[in-house]
Records
---
Amino acid sequence: MSKIIEARGGAKLHLTSSAAHGHGDNDQLFVHEFRDDQGSKVGMWIFIFTEALLFGGLFCMYMYYRNMYGLDFHNAALRPDIAAGTNNTLILLTSSLTMVLGLAALQKGHKAASVVWTFLTVGFGFGFLYNKYFEWSHKIGDGIFPGSETLSLFPLGEIQFFGLYYLMTGLHTLHVIIGMVVLTVCAVKIMYNSINKDKYIVLENSGLYWHLVDLIWIFLFPLFYLLH
Amino acid sequence: MSHSEELAGSSTAHGESIGYHGPSYGLFILIWIALVGLTSLTVGIAGIDLGAYTVSLALLIACIKSGLVLAYFMHFKFDTPLIKFLVGGCGVIFTGIILFLGLDIFFI
């Protein structure tokens, strides 16, 4: 049993009855729990804006160098593996679908389905990392990595291209790993009911983060794998 | 669907029937199919030399894809006016700055 008192601006004070925890029905002890779902969502979006600024700066740098070393960028973009990039695009798009289905399932009250979808999303994250591992290993095996002797013989523009390639896809992969950790925590919390049908803002915000990771990849993919 | 409705709804005795008002699973799957389709398109045309339009076209497809993710997967389309204002406003300014910087770099 719970009561909700709505304050100005949408913040809510949740009064949860302890009756559910073994006391008698008439023994109503209300525990105060302050919750502001709308506020935490706005906070998440503001965090996402800062992420957009972080990657936005790097995209501007990419534009600048691409204009400066057009031909080198054109040639360098022939080197990354299109198949690996395409697979990872499909993996991330599908993981975004499972993420949103996990949230919808929870909102509909299907807890087990939500746990499965959320773990599946983490699984796709592993798939992405697996691909990325082989893609980078292959590049590093070819001697193409920042500071390598092979790369230092390349034209200046190609060195810039691979600097940005490792920086931007690396920073993105770091986001994937963080997202996987956050979503694993969410899945466990759903299992233990601390994220539930009436209280899903943590899963919703984590979902926003995961979709952001997908969104960034949507732009990284053509810029580093297709534009040759 | 506002949060207050959702929460108020679920706290009633018959909350079960009121719970979820968001889009159906089917719509999300359709969006996913569209995203996969656009990915195939952008990979498909990558092999064709379109000269100066290659970059613009690839970025245009990326913008459409991110629009779909933002509108449906990130629930922008179904969100409250406050979130729409914040995300829409910042999105327009951000895209505008990148766009004009791009024009500045490539055409001047």
Note: The domain at 37-226 of chain A is CATH 1.20.120.80 (Four Helix Bundle (Hemerythrin (Met), subunit A)).
---
Amino acid sequence: MSEILRIENLHKSFDDLEVLKGIDLTVQSGETVVILGSSGSGKSTMLRCVNFMESPTNGKIYLNGDLIGTERNGKMTYKEAELCTLRSRIGMVFQHFNLFPHMTVLENVLEGQVIVLGRAKMEARDKAMAQLERVGLAEKAFEYPSRLSGGQKQRVAIARALAMDPEVMLFDEVTSALDPELVGEVLKTMRQLAEEGMTMLCVTHELGFAYHVANRVLFLNEGIILEQGEPQSILKNPDTNRMREFLDGHSLFKLPD
Amino acid sequence: MEWNFLAVLRDFDLLILGLLNTLKVTGLALLFGVPLGLVLALSRLSTIRVLSGVAGFIVEFFRTTPPLVQLFWFFFALPILVDVRMTPLIAAVVTFSIQSSAFFAEIFRGGILSIDKGQWEGAKAIGMTYGQSLRRIILPQAVKRMIPAFMERSIELLKTTTLVSTVAYTDLMFQANELAQKTFRPLEVYTVVAVIYFVLIFVFSQASIWAEHRLAKSGEGTVR
């Protein structure tokens, strides 16, 4: 295993509000990292800083050993073109899918390949169909997103990200907007990706997914990583009271075994 | 009195000439006004303060002053201030391009702002630049929603161009005035002119409804 992503001393403030107060994280290639935390803990912001959907206030991010941006007088500066290239190398899936409604499923998966990567139409098409096959939606290629269920939309969004051949995939609460019975199909797709060796960072509330799929679980609290470890130990026996409270909150109304 | 349309119909070719000139002014004003409107809208949405401020001022200025005053200003005042002579056609096209661009800018701005922020994010996340996101993702969706307002404004523009008759441009209204004086049949002349405007605009709006329905077929639109 080799290092693919490194975050050093990441800080992010929105005006006066400091959301991230120094995050350090190294992710190995093929690792699945699940990020837990209550709302406002900074977990989504952290994920969005990795591909510069948000610009970090301070700190450094390395992808495959390359420092993103240029350091000048102790301050990082970023060129828009560099960030666009970076984003094309990192896949991101959102809570609300963000599919392009004026394009068919196939066109959604083609768009980035053709417009951003400049791939030839035929090659991009083959790739798109292969990715739709992978998420089990090849037969929906010519439908518009409005005709799909939430779970199917999310799987198309995953295929759209995968078609770019990303080095890392970011999942930002991707099952939070779904009907409970559609959550499973999306998590299954994600598990399949993890098993195929994709490097994944997932912000989620699905503790079961964290337990069964993650290699490592991070618990964010008030802008710092409060705890991290293997899911089997950290989810069963957290060190801190704060994380114990968090986990208890999730299992208040569990069905009896 | 008796209605007599014969005198009007005998010189109908005069009105046709006027109609063509009306269409010419309107068409040219649209040709320049729409892109200029987009530029103004994007400037106004820009995070660069100076740019959005200047664009905002232009838009407000041309929306709040009467088009007749603007036309007179470009035709009579500008040649005095700086050494540019304008033909009535050029003055009309300049005036109505800028004047309608102010309105189109607001239509574009509203259309762009009505698109969910997630669409920008989806485009950004696959590595698209601002320009690519706008061209490929945001505008195609925004334009669909803009069609009704856009058509409304174009019809308004077509009717506002009747003002060019005041600077002696031979548009439909100018020709109508001439013909009315020549034939002493103003009621008949203006009735025929009203019918011409009605037919023109009716065809125009039917075409826009057709376009709206066609666009609605692909994904989301204004009609279901």
Note: The domain at 3-98+170-250 of chain A is CATH 3.40.50.300 (Rossmann fold).
